[in-house]
């Protein structure tokens, strides 16, 4: 029999006995007694409920004495007491884990801020308090941009593209440079992670300065050496064939070193954050027409080169930097395309975005090399790069120029079939021109030009 029937049994027995006894003897006395007993039972249950209510009122249930009852109430109290103990144990475990987590995050050198769905501060560790000048007790609930008031940071947060960290110069903390990484999670919450990168930045600046200074110092001696070697070769003052060969070799190497130094200087100029981008209106058509002529002379008739200008749109940016990026892609196409290969230079506007691309039918690139091509000195074939006068810095320069113009590069290539290097410019850098006729400089056109 379960506890329900056990608790009900006395009442049932009482009723079963009271009815015949009441009928046989004095009904008034029997039912009067019956009612008094029932009232006693009701009072007992109400009192037990009151004890339950008093027990539940205790601030710490696990330490309060459980009311001592038998029967169904006894079972209920035993279950509740067990539930409370288990719940307390779990809560204690959770509290311990939370405390441990908080202690661990407090010990982290990185600052961590939990931002709510409206970018309000919900929690932060002590490193974040130090880095961003926060005080959790006072600033909880405040919008993060009220605490980090830099315009560029507000724009970064609004833009919502957190693929790259944001560099925050905290002049308040004696020129501390922070790298801010935002990680969205959950519904619309975010995790803001701040890292002090002042030391790395200092080392990076030292490295950049060192390369720039060495390159600069090498420039003059190399120009002098190259100049003398050229003069000696031109004046034909050396008689022996072996000496002449040695002289030619020395001159070629001096030229190569000068090119390397120039590329290194270009890279350090591009990397210099203080060097702001010149925002000018670049006539892409004119620029490409000039580069097309240069490509013709570099190719010296070994390739079929065409220029397709499907738009007259101009670009907003630095003409020198864009020339250098386009030049590198074009010279690569010429250098890595065997004789009688086909090369095309193209300028189009698609969905408001500017697209410049160079297509060649050259040696192509294996897919595994493509992600690394923009690294400094990364070459697929070192000897081929050297033979054709490469420095291994061309695509690194392209990458830097594109970063400064918020442009991106897409490389598609098939070994043995050729490559396409596409550069996409964002629509805010494209200055639309009035509808202009499509200009195309085909090889025939060039022949006509050169014949004229
Ligand atoms: P390099 O001065 O060696 O050409 P780059 O940085 O310009 O250096 O290019 C890096 C490497 O990418 C090159 O060494 C070459 O292997 C590969 N590469 C670049 N452009 C092309 C192309 N159009 N076709 C085939 N390979 C290319």
Automatic annotation (TrEMBL):
The chain crosses the membrane at residues 28-52. CDD domains: HisKA. It is an enzyme of class 2 (transferase). The keyword Oxidoreductase does not apply. SMART domains: HATPase_c, HisKA. The gene is phoR. Residues 213-429 form the Histidine kinase domain. PANTHER family: PHOSPHATE REGULON SENSOR PROTEIN PHOR. Signal peptide: none annotated. It is found in: Cell inner membrane. The keyword Repeat does not apply. This is Phosphate regulon sensor protein PhoR. Member of the two-component regulatory system PhoR/PhoB involved in the phosphate regulon genes expression. PhoR may function as a membrane-associated protein kinase that phosphorylates PhoB in response to environmental signals.
